[in-house]
Structures are given as C-alpha cells and as structure tokens.
Amino acid sequence: MADRKPPAPVGPDFEPDALDARITVHEAAQIVEIDYTGLHIGSSAEANAFYDRVEHRIDASGEPLWFFLADTTDYRIDSSAWFAYSRRSTDLHEAHSMGTVRVDRTPGMGAKLASWRGTDRENPNLFASRAEAWEALRARPSLRRLRPGHVPSHHKVDFRRRIRLDPEAGICEVDLSGISFEHSRDVNDIFNWIEEAVRPTGRRWYFLYDYEGTRIQQPAWLTYTLRAEALRDAWSLGSVRYAAGSETETDIRLRAESRTTRPNIRNTRAEALERIAEMKAAAA
Predict the structure, then answer these.
(1) Could you tell me if residue 107 is inside a domain?
(2) Which domain of life is it from (predicted)?
(3) For the purposes of burial, counting CB atoms within 10 Å of the CB of 221, is it exposed (0-12), middle (13-18) or buried (19 or more)?
(4) 75-133 pLDDT, tens per residue?
(5) Model confidence over 109-125: pLDDT tens digits?
C-alpha cells in the first residue's frame, strides 16, 4: 500500500519479546507489573514502542481496568523521548489505571522515604520495595465491578450518511467531523459501519477522512488503533486525513512512529486529494 513505511528504528530492548519480559499481567490480583529496571528510553520511537506493547498486553487480557506497579530503579529517559513518554504514560493511566504505584530500589531510598514522611515531599505512591508496593495496591478497592456498560454515542442510520463511495475515483470518503470517540463501543460501532459499507464492493479503496473537530478520547485510543489497522489491512489502498485538530494530530503522529503506516495528515480536503493522487501514481 502507498501509505506504508518502515517503523522508526528502536533498540533491541524494545522488540516485542524483550518488552514482554518486562510486562507481567497478574490476573487474580488485577495488577499489571512493569519492570523498567535499567531501561534506557532513548527516542520518541522507543517510548511509543514501549507503550504500544503495554497497550497490546492490556487488550489481550480482555480487561480495560488494572492496577499498575512500576519498578523504575535505574531507568533513564532521554530528553528527546520525554514528550512521547509522558504523553503516552498519561494516556495509558487515564484510560486503564485503577491506581498506580512505583518502586525505586536505589540504595538508601527506604531511609529517604522515611525522612520525607509527614512533609510536603511525602509520596504515598512511591516505595522502596516491591513487597510494600504490592501490599499497598492489594489494599485498594477494585473499580471493575463499578464499571458501567458503554452507552453508544452514535446511531447507524445517521453515520451511514457520512460514508460516500466514489467507484470511479476509487475513494471511500468518511466524514468524521465533530465525532467524539468516547470509548471502545463508539470505535467498534463506527468501524463496523465503515466495513459494512465497503464489504459488498469486494474491492480495496483509498480512504479520505474529514477529521475537523474529531476527538479520540483516551479510553478509545487502543481500540481505535487496532480497528484502524484491521480496516487498512482488509480494505485500504491508502488513507489520508485532513483538518485534524492539533491535539488529535499530535496523538496520531506519535502513535504512527512505531508502526508501519504513514499518518498522512493534510490541512484541507484539496491537499488530501492531492496526496491520494500521489499515492495512486506511486502505485501505478
């Protein structure tokens, strides 16, 4: 496909198998344990690869809500990686965390934490040992049983009017303007309806998306990424978005770094159509 690219390079510590060794899902305790020990995150691409893998493991679990226990002893984050790391970390915890604690086993940390107790430097989520951190999480109440069912935000009849197929141009135009993806239900509904529109054609399409005013909320991002990839693999010759707001564009570009698809974001519909013409020419 014309919008494919090699993912940004990452070190061997950020290959899936190496990252899986650092991520342990404790089903019974409802804890995801992440071992950062000695890890050096040297680039934005490595930060994105790291959090892509954590999100993959969460998706594979079938449960969206977890406690997180992170051992950050002797880890480093370069300045070039900090923006992606902090943004993806915030996104992960806003969408999936019932509570997060951190372990720092640096020599002398226990005494330091004790000296901070009762002062403005006290951090109730930082511990000097895994055992203390584990005990603190186990004392917290699970929120899973309180999780409400997702109420759909969009209606099929209304949304199907936003999908237009142009067989002569080979373009499927999808109007996502003003759409807010609040949660996984919204994502699955909309991608199901897009797939229902293109499946009877039996062909691949260039996808043109209007993103003006589109918002992808943090609880929806993981499902959005997976469904967009599945749509591309099954039905796409290439995809271009236009008029994305700055926050949405930043998130899309960050998440594209560690993946094999170009973000292909343009300012206007005319520029997006020009990009599709370029992809057609490259594929000819």
Answers:
(1) yes
(2) Bacteria
(3) buried
(4) 999 999 999 999 999 999 988 999 999 999 988 887 888 888 878 888 889 999 999 99
(5) 878 888 888 788 888 89
Q: What is the CATH number of the domain that holds 105?
A: 3.30.750
Distance (Å) of CA 138 to CA 23, 93, 152, 222:
18, 18, 33, 26
Paired tokens of 112? 């330091």
- Residue 194: how many other CB atoms lie within 10 Å: 24
Which tokens hold the place of 109? 């940390």
State which residues form the domain around 35: 12-146
Return the structure tokens found at 44: 């934005």
Q: What is the pLDDT of residue 273?
A: 96
Which amino acid is present at 37? T
Phi, psi (degrees; rounded to nearest 5) at 162: -85, -5
Confidence band of 3 (pLDDT split at 50, 70, 90): low
Looking at the structure, tell me whether residues 208 and 257 fall in a common domain: yes
Tell me the C-alpha distance between 254 and 245, whole Å. Answer: 14
Q: Both 267 and 193 in a single domain?
A: yes
In angstroms, the CA 60 to CA 211 distance is 29
* Residue of 86, 33, 87, 21 lying closest to 58 (CA atoms): 33
Do 233 and 265 contact (CB within 8 A), yes or no? no
pLDDT digits 0-9 by tens, 31-57: 999 999 999 999 999 999 999 999 999
Asked whether 162 and 176 are in contact (CB, 8 A), the reply is: yes
